[in-house]
What does this fold into?
Amino acid sequence: MSDALNGKGRLPDATRRHVREVADRLGYRPSAAARTLRTGKSGLIGLTVTTYGDEPFTFTEFAYFAEMARAATSAALARGYALVILPATSRHDVWSNVALDGTVVIDPSDQDPVVSELVRQGLPVVSDGRPAGSLPVTAWVDNDHEAAVLGILDHLADAGARRIGLLTGTTTDTYTHLSTTAYLRWCERVGQDPVYEAYPAHDPCAGAVAADRLLARPDRPDAVYGLFDPNGTDLLAAARRYGLRVPDDLLLVCCSESTVYANTEPPITTLSLKPRRIGTAVVQLLIDAIEGVESDQPVEQVIPTELIVRTSSERRPPRTTVSPPRSPEEG
Amino acid sequence: MSDALNGKGRLPDATRRHVREVADRLGYRPSAAARTLRTGKSGLIGLTVTTYGDEPFTFTEFAYFAEMARAATSAALARGYALVILPATSRHDVWSNVALDGTVVIDPSDQDPVVSELVRQGLPVVSDGRPAGSLPVTAWVDNDHEAAVLGILDHLADAGARRIGLLTGTTTDTYTHLSTTAYLRWCERVGQDPVYEAYPAHDPCAGAVAADRLLARPDRPDAVYGLFDPNGTDLLAAARRYGLRVPDDLLLVCCSESTVYANTEPPITTLSLKPRRIGTAVVQLLIDAIEGVESDQPVEQVIPTELIVRTSSERRPPRTTVSPPRSPEEG
It folds into this structure.
């Protein structure tokens, strides 16, 4: 009966139709689970953020992940796959309740247990973020985070910064790690003492506290780069508390995809990691791997970043004498 | 062995550990499909747009669906569910390859075959958009589309419109249907001949053609409301082709969640349907139904809309004499 209902096998069409009608009358429905057991392929691909392990983290609340997931969804649908957006923690039963053909993992930490387990099961895993250490992913897509950070630090130094601070994270994913080491190396090269605060980036309260701590230090920086989405507004709020004007007393840049920063007071310079391009690329690589397609694309793809320069990192030129408009009396 | 691996059943802990170690060595992995067969619950909820049937339609490319899906994803993750974003067509095998606990369906058409089949299977279905006809959904969330359209038509008439046109769709979902009948009734009430073009809204090219056709008519409207996201830019382009200035010769409003319309030339008035609130509400209702929770919330929820008034629907007041700034020569 199963072959008749699936339109496969060697039953004559009339028989097939008859079986189907009877099955319909009986309320028989094909079991998704049974079918998956037989064919071994489900048409489902997973997407999750494993950086924060079992910490609660609704990642779609962050602009980067939301944009990335949107692009990934579109790319999956366009190739006939459904995207399953999974809870970040491996604790959830749902991981063992869905038969995935492969998974996209965002910012895995080193020795990430979810990635290790999926790879052990023989499933393709493509990571957004180059894998730390020996994490054996099928392919990865990432930005050149070191080059991006060095570009921002040079941009801030060009704008007059003498002591640049960093807001960074406490996790071991390569985004956080590479960005931080790039900062430390830059400091060493230019002879500046590093001034940074690290916090668990999934916790927005911790971010506000870290921003405050950074500006409360005796060696207060005159410019800050924040690695995470809410750092711009957190730093603006902290600057206000300490009576610091942006950009006059404090230059600011943060990594964010949020359009909010075009309209803050003042607008804040942001680094965009181009999550839509990344979301599309990871899904293409994953489906290629699932289908065994020989890809023209390298299995390691680096997507360019974009620095969107706004008022917060442009120090005004030194005042020159400006002639006031002539009043009628002078005419 | 299955009980040992799942941490259930009555095996002593030592036995359980031993079985697990042996299973690990043998490369045994728990089968998601087998587990789903046994427990009957998967922790997975579906989301799809069925309005356009088997037409290709990557719905996440539209701002409304992207925002709604983002909110739905967050709401699902927050309650420990994974969201499966499914291809719009029932043709895809993937529908039968995933065991869903329930599904969110966006803008179902009347007699929607996907909804009918899911309900027949006894699965909870919550629709974004009140169900047309006798579609037996578990619950729905929607806006009051009639009130929203009447509000827009009054707003345009107040701004001086004498003949208001409509860009609408050819599908039978209630959004399109209720918005169109509200327009027709308004026309009857104020004694205006209806001026509208309908097109299949999943096809962006058809939208551009319909906008052009609407403005090429001998009974050309002096104001247009477009029901779909790209109508604003399509109408602006068509207006330019016919030498019509917005808002002087043509007033424009469209229903869109896109931030693009804050920066078009001129900025375009938009109706927001608040997709984030809808996405959150549908998932809460669906999970309540799956878990058999007695909900405080009604199973029919109406979310308020918001008209964001911009230049395109504000006719300038009649010119009054403005004194030019005095030049020095006159001082």
In short: Residues 174-190 of chain B form the longest helix (17 residues). Chain B touches chain A through 52 residues (CB under 8 Å).
